[in-house]
Amino acid sequence: MDRKIRVLVAKPGLDGHDRGAKVIARALMEEGFEVIYTGLRQTPEDIVETAIQEDVDCIAMSILSGAHNYLFPRVMELIKENELEVLVIAGGVIPEEDIPFLKSIGISEVFTPGTPTKVTVDYIKQNVKR
């Protein structure tokens, strides 16, 4: 039997709002994914360490604080340093003009508010490397 897709849902930084992260975590679980949720206020180091320990296929970061251009590059740097083969996606309140930069550092896709959860679920299914 194939192993379920393992997704780490992470909330980097001091952002205290996790409703969106919980909604996506539940949607992923309902689709048969194995979900590890980090909880609030995680450092990039915490996120990557958890990804390694849990042997995840995907890291889904959610942010609303506006610190994505600072926190996401650090996560990507640590992923490269640790030679992780993992799909990285992001969601939350991220201005359109910041998305090209985030993709240029290795974030595969950015989902903005209002994206149907099915779009995110399907994206992970189609893009995760097993």
Automatic annotation (TrEMBL):
Location of the B12-binding domain: 4-130
GO MF assignments: cobalamin binding; isomerase activity; metal ion binding
Pfam families: B12-binding (PF02310)
Keywords on record: Cobalamin, Cobalt, Isomerase, Metal-binding
Keyword presence, Isomerase: yes
Superkingdom: Bacteria
Cofactor: adenosylcob(III)alamin
InterPro entries: Acid_CoA_mut_C (IPR006159), Cobalamin-bd (IPR006158), Cobalamin-bd_sf (IPR036724)
Keyword Isomerase: yes
NCBIfam families per UniProt: acid_CoA_mut_C (TIGR00640)
Protein name, per record: Methylmalonyl-CoA mutase
Organism whose genome encodes this protein: Fervidicella metallireducens AeB
